[in-house]
Each structure stands twice: as C-alpha cells, then as structure tokens.
UniProtKB/TrEMBL annotation:
Name recorded for this polypeptide: histidine kinase
E.C. number(s) listed in UniProt: 2.7.13.3
Domain Histidine kinase: residue ranges: 609-826
Protein's organism: Bradyrhizobium shewense
PANTHER family, sorted: OSMOSENSING HISTIDINE PROTEIN KINASE SLN1, TWO-COMPONENT HISTIDINE PROTEIN KINASE
CDD domains found in the cross-reference section: HATPase, HisKA
Positions of transmembrane segments: 58-78
Length: 834
C-alpha cells in the first residue's frame, strides 16, 4: 500500500503545475471523504508545501477525489487478480487429477482389443475409437466401421443395422454374437448411456468364445431336437427307437395306434412290436450286417393287411425305424404294369412305327410297323440293341437323312434322353419319303420314338397351302372389299380392304361373327333396312341363289358398288368397290362442264359488250381529241392544249387496257385466232423497241440488242410477237434503275426461236414468281410506271397460243431474265390454237 501512496504522491507533484494553472475541475471535492487516511496525510503535506488560495484549494480537492477513486479501483483489481490466481491453480490441479483419472480409465477400457462407437443425442455423426483392425485393415478410414456390410456377411450386417437403429431411435439395448467375413467371432453390445447411444464391439476369445459357441450349439441342438420330436409326434407313419438291447425307448403316437397300445409306456411294458417275428429277425440281421434295413412288408393294422415300406438304421448305440404306408403305391405299381402291357398290345396294332428304348438306351419294345418301316431283321431287334447300333445300321443301309456331321446329329437326337418335353421333327429320307418323328421322354427313363410316313400328306398340305397362300395374297391385294359368309351366316373369309371399307376390327372379324352382327357394326355408315334385308336373305337362303348387284350411298358421302355372289359350297361372297372418286369425278365433270359452258357464254357476252359498248365510245373520244388538236379547227389556249393532251394520253391508255382485256378474254374464251405468217426476228425486235424509245430517253436507259446471225425467221403472228416483246421490254424498263442497261437477244435452236429479255432491276421474290403472269397482278415496288398488271399475262397467253413456253429466272437484287420459246414447228401452232 505504501508503494501505491508514494506513486500517487509523485503523480500529484507532477500535477501541481496543472492545479496552479486551473486545468483540473472541482469534482475531486465530492470524492475526498471516501479517500483513505493515507490520502488525508497526503493532502496535509501538500497544503504545507503549497500556498494555495481558495480557488487553488478547490481545484486540488477535485484532483485528490479522483485520485482516491483510482486508488480504490486499483486495490479492488489487485484483490480480484489474487483470487483469480488461486482459483486457476485449484482448477489446474483438478484438471490434472481428471486427466490422470481419464488416462487410467482409457488404459483399463482398451486393455483388450475393442471398438467404441458413440452417437450424441440429436447428432448423426458417430465418434469411433479403439482398434479398428478387429474388422478392417489398419490403414482403413474409421468411418468404414459403420458400413457393416464391408466386414460382415449380409444377414449379420442387416441384423446389426436393425439393432443400431433401434438403439438410436428408442434406446433399445442389444447384445449380439457376430461372425465376420474372415471367420472372427465378435460380441456387439449396445446401450443408451448419458444421452448417448454407445456400441461396444470386441472379440470373443478363449473361455468366453467357447462358452458362447457351446451355448449356441446347445440352443441349436435343443431347437433341432424339439423340431424332430414335433415332426415325429405329428407324422402319420409309425416311428420308433430301440436301445442297444433291442428294447423300445421311443414311439410316436402313430406307432402306439398301430400296435393298439394305450400309450408309450404300455407299449414298452407289454413289448408290443409292429412287425412279426420273421420280419423282426430279418431287420435285426440287416442292421447288424449293413447298419440299415429297407424292405416292403405286409403289416396288419386294425385288422387290415396293408403294405408298408419299412426303413431302419443304426444310430449311436441303438436304432431308429419308420414304416411308411405304401399300399397305394403298390397298387399303382401293379396297375402300371398291367397298363404298360395293355399299351404294348395297343401299340403293336398301330400303323405308326413305335420303338421304346429304356434308360440304358436299349430297345425295350417295338411294333411290327416299326420293323416294316425300316425293313430291319427281327433277330437283330429281338437282341435288344442300343439306340446307337440301330442308327448305325440304318445309316449303313442309307435309310437315314443325309447329314454332313452324323455324329453331331446323333448326339443332338440323343438329347431326348435328358429332355423333359416331347420334340417333333421331320426326316426326309434318301428314297424320297418324309417321316414325322415324335420323340417322347419316358417317365421311368428312356425314350419312345413314333414314326409316321407323311409323304403324301405333306405333298397335299404343300399344294393346299400354296393354293390358300395364293388365294389369300390375291384377296389381300385387291382394292375391292371381299367377305365370304358360310351357309350358317358366319364370316369365314375377309380381306383388309373389306375391314377398312366398313371400319371394322380385324380381331372381331376373325371370331367369325354372324351376318346380323356385321350388319349392326356397319349401321353407322349405312342403315338402309331394305338393302340389309336383301343381303341377309341372299346369305342365308337356300333357293333362288343368284348374283345381286348393289349400289350403296353411305352416310359419310362415299359410294360403294357391291355384288352378292353365291358360291358352290353354299357360302356367299360379298364384294364392295369404292367408286366414290369415280362418282365425284363424274359429278365434278358435269358441274365443270356446266360452269365452263356458262363461263364461255359470259366471256362471249363480255367480248361483245366491250367491243360495242366500251371500245366505240373510246374511239369517238380519241377521234374528237385528235380533231381538236388539229390546227385547222382553230387555235387553242395553252391550258386547253395541255388538257387536251391529258385527255389524249388517258384515252390511249384506256384503249390499250381495253384492247389487252379484250385480247385476254378472247384467248381465254378460245376465240383468238392467230394470223400466221413469216415473222422476221430482227424486224420484230426493231418494232418492239420503237414503242419504248420515249421511256428509254426519259429514264436514260440503254437498250442492248443481240441477234444471232442464223436466227432468220419463223412462222407466227407477227403482230402478237411484237406485242409480246414490247410488253417484256416495257416491264424491264419500268423496273430498271436509271443509267442502266436492258438487254434483248434472239437465237435459234433445233426446234424453236428463243427471245431473252434481261434487266438489272430489284428482281422478283421467290413467293411472287408464280403470280407474275396472273391477271391484274401489278407490283409497283421498284417500278416507275404503274400498270394494270396485264402485260405479262398477255405475254404468257400469246406465247402459249403459239405453242411456246415462258419462264422467269430472277435473283432478288440482281435483276430478272424472261425467256420466251416460239416453236418453229407449225403443228405446234395448230395444237395450241385448238
């Protein structure tokens, strides 16, 4: 404490200058009474040393109060540190004791090889400690111990999984003895301790293992003994056991009932025996000589004599026996012998060849048909030859089918001795015969061969199958629906066309439905009662059988042409042919013919109307316009001249449009007549080019003409050819950009004169190529001259009228090429005109 006070004094002396300067507040005065006595002495000393005035004393008092608070806090801190040091020393000592105790417990716990697995409550992560080499190699991961299937067989691993799950879920303890996959015996104990599930696995060795194994063997032996006693007590056969001296030591209830004893003790006391003395003597001799006895003996039980199979065997110092009722088996055996004899007599009368070989593959029976079939010597057959010897003799006589590998073929045939099912085969012999061979394994061992000559039947079947196949394929390939109904009214035959035509089910038709059932299925398509009654009567009638034609108009709009035709065997064949398309075509042709006749009349009327009602006024207007523009009629003002020019251009355009429409209508009506004559190709191109000179000059477009020297002339309508080329050039100029080139060329081929017009316009989209030749199909995009869309229509019409063809090749953005072929053959002109 004195050291603290000295330190505080030094601090106060260093703070004197601060006090004099008034830097400390007056808060120390409030803490001064709480300071210790040493602080009061310090204040007195300071008062003597310093000459304070009142203000300075107040500041000093505040500083001293703060200093006192610091001293108290320091004292309390020192006491706390001393107490903490003492507690820490005690805790370290306690921890050392606990660590020492844990080491002792660990050494004691792992004094023997074992594994501890613990699961804290609510945690699925297991903590594993101990020697894992009990179950896994030392370098294995400890977590692999939890995979019980890696070191336990499947059944113990499943048992361990269930036990651990029950321990963790419900706290159920367990104790199991396990045998690992390597043969080690382990003990697994599971307990719930302190909120944790703990499993302890250790090896059973020494006395504990012996005790555990002895306990297991004892339990198994006890269970086995109880099971055998229960079986013997409930068995319906007499079972007994005798000691070394031959005295009865055990008997089941069946034995007691068979000897008519009251109980086992009564049978032992009265020495009741199941067998008579001779049989007992034979049994004792057999047990003495061979340690077992087997015999079928008669035994009288309840006054009835029955046959029993008696089995006895030496066990330890005594013997055990059982008597099984074999009366029914003995009777069945006798009956089987008699049945076998009857079968042998029956088989001997069959026309089919039968040969029976026993389990040693020796001939046990054959009938006379077998001998005659193979022409074998009776002496050879009566010597009971084996199967291989018979086959070898038949092969030597060339009576078996030719085989590339006879040994393999014979081995495959002899597989019947090990088979369980009957096999069938057909042998084609070198002499042209065909044999049906049925190989049947015998229940008592061996094989029975059944041979039938099927040469004639196979030939007939082949012919019949061929005829049926041809008939079936013929019916299936017919477009007509065919169905055959027997004299009983049931369907016997049908083809796919009949099923499709009436929307029936093939599976239902295979069930041979009656004609009334088929009628019910077909009512959804055709429900005329009179027609169906006629069909039913034709199918089921006996007299007045004749062909009956039918024509059915069904609800779905289809039309069937049918025929009811009686067959010679009493059956009736129905045939149906779908003539819907024929009817529709005929109807459409009639309607089209009527429409064409009406259209032709309309076209004629239209042409007549245009010729007399529209063209005549236009001609008059054009004539007066020309008359007004003639200077002889008098002068016109500029405005009047301008208006008159507009009238002239408009009427000329209207007249051209009218002429085009009139030409198209005339062509479409078949009234257009070509004025055939020699067409000079060069002159024709020149005339067509003159009509577009003003457009070429206006749009600054150059026309490039290429005419082959040998093009010459051809037969055609020169006026229409000029009109074709003019329309093509006008169309090309209209779509070509300014300062570009439009080309026209002509060349001669072997059979035609080809005109080609090209431009560098925007091209024609693919979806528009098929529409450019339609009436009034005008495409103004990319063109400077909007028209009515009739120019290209006239081009195609005039070219085709000459017997030629027009085709268009165009690439968008790269221009268009139109090619016209005019044939040089005059016959083509006549055909086109017709």
């Amino acid at each position: 404490m004195s050291g603290v006070i000295v330190s505080m004094r030094r601090t106060l002396l260093s703070c004197t200058s601060l006090v004099r300067n008034g830097l400390l507040g007056g808060a120390l005065a409030a803490l001064l009474p709480a300071a210790p006595a040493e602080a009061a002495d310090l204040i007195d000393t300071l008062s003597i040393m310093l000459d304070f005035n009142r203000q300075e004393l107040a500041v000093l008092a505040t500083a001293l109060a703060l200093l006192g608070f610091s001293v108290v806090a320091a004292i309390l801190l020192m006491r706390t540190r001393v107490r903490t040091a003492k507690n820490e020393a005690r805790l370290r000592a306690r921890i050392g004791e606990l660590q020492l105790q844990a080491d002792r417990f660990g050494a004691l716990l792992f004094a023997e090889p074992q594994i501890l697995i613990s699961w804290p409550a609510g945690d699925n992560r297991a903590q594993i400690s101990g020697d894992i080499s009990l179950v896994l190699p030392r370098d294995s991961s400890p977590q692999r111990v939890l995979a019980f299937g890696t070191w336990l067989p499947p059944e113990p691993a499943l048992q361990m999984d269930h036990a651990v799950d029950a321990l963790r879920d419900r706290g159920d303890g367990f104790q199991l003895t396990l045998t690992t996959a390597h043969g080690h015996t382990l003990e697994a104990i599971g307990r719930a301790i302190g909120g944790q599930a703990i499993v302890r696995i250790r090896e059973l060795s020494g006395l504990r293992r012996d005790l555990a194994e002895t306990h297991l063997r004892y339990n198994a032996l006890s269970d086995e003994t109880e099971m055998l006693r229960g079986f013997a007590a409930n068995a319906p056969w007499p079972i007994w056991a005798k000691g070394e001296n031959g005295a009865l030591t055990y008997a089941n209830p069946a034995y007691v009932r068979a000897t008519e004893a009251n109980n086992v003790t009564d049978a032992q006391e009265r020495k009741l025996e199941l067998l008579d003395s001779a049989d007992r003597t034979a049994m004792e001799r057999g047990l003495k000589d061979t340690a077992n006895f087997n015999a079928r003996l008669p035994i009288v039980i309840s006054g009835e004599r029955r046959i029993y199979d008696v089995r006895a065997v030496n066990v330890g110092s005594g013997s055990v026996g059982v008597a099984i009722d074999a009366s029914e088996a003995d009777a069945l055996s006798s009956a089987l012998v008699r049945m076998a004899e009857a079968h042998r007599r029956t088989l001997d009368q069959l026309s089919s060849g039968v040969a029976v070989f026993d389990g040693q593959r020796r001939l046990a029976f054959y009938n006379d048909s077998y001998r005659r079939l193979w022409d074998l010597d009776r002496t050879f057959l009566d010597a009971d030859p084996d199967d291989s010897s018979v086959l070898d003799q038949l092969r030597a006589a060339r009576k078996l089918p030719e085989q590339p590998d006879f040994r393999a073929w014979k081995s495959k045939l002899h597989e019947a001795y090990r088979a369980v099912e009957t096999t069938k085969d057909t042998w084609y012999l070198p002499d042209g015969r065909a044999l049906s061979v049925v190989t049947t394994p015998n229940p008592e061992g061996g094989v029975t061969y059944l041979f039938d000559d099927v040469t004639e039947s196979l030939e007939l079947a082949r012919r019949f199958d061929g005829m049926i196949r041809v008939q079936r394929e013929t019916l299936d390939s017919l477009a007509e629906g065919v169905a055959v109904f027997g004299s009983n009214g049931k369907a016997q035959l049908f083809n796919p066309a009949f099923v499709r035509m009436w929307k029936l089910s093939s599976d239902a038709m295979r069930d041979e439905p009656h004609i009334q059932t088929v009628e019910g299925w077909c009512h959804q398509l055709f429900d005329d009662p009179a027609v169906w009654r006629q069909i039913r009567e034709a199918v089921t009638s006996i007299e007045s059988r004749a062909d009956v034609p039918l024509k059915l108009e069904r609800k779905d709009g289809s039309v069937l042409d049918g025929m009811i035709r009686p067959l010679h065997d009493g059956a009736t064949m129905l045939t149906f042919q779908d003539i819907t398309d024929t009817e529709n075509v005929e109807r459409a042709l009639r309607e089209r013919n009527e429409a064409l006749e009406a259209a032709d009349q309309m076209k004629v009327d239209f042409v007549h109307h245009v010729s007399y009602e529209l063209r005549s006024p236009l001609t008059t207007i054009i004539g007066f316009a020309h008359f007004l523009s003639d200077p002889s009629t008098g002068p016109l003002t500029p405005k009047q001249a301008e208006y008159l020019d507009y009238v002239t251009k408009s009427t000329n355009a209207l007249l051209a449009l009218t002429n085009n429409i009139l030409d198209l209508a005339t062509i479409d009506a078949g009234a257009m007549k070509l004025e055939l004559g020699p067409v000079d190709v060069s002159k024709t191109i020149e005339l067509a080019a003159e009509g577009i000179q003003d457009r070429l000059a206006t749009d600054r477009i150059r026309l490039k003409v290429e005419i082959a020297p040998d093009v010459g002339s051809f037969v055609g309508d020169e006026k229409r050819v000029v009109q074709v080329l003019y329309n093509l050039l006008a169309n090309a100029v209209g779509f070509s950009p300014q300062d570009s080139t439009v080309g026209i060329s002509a060349r001669r081929t072997e059979r035609s004169v080809v005109f080609t017009v090209t431009d560098s316009g925007p091209g024609i989209p693919a979806d528009m190529k098929d529409k450019v030749f339609n009436w009034f199909e005008s495409r103004s995009q990319g063109s400077r001259h909007r028209g009515a869309g009739l120019g290209l229509s006239l081009v195609r019409s005039f070219v085709e009228l000459h017997g030629g063809k027009v085709r268009v090749d165009s690439i968008v953005g790269r221009g268009t090429v139109v090619i016209c072929d005019f044939p040089t053959d005059q016959a083509a002109h006549r055909d086109a005109a017709e």
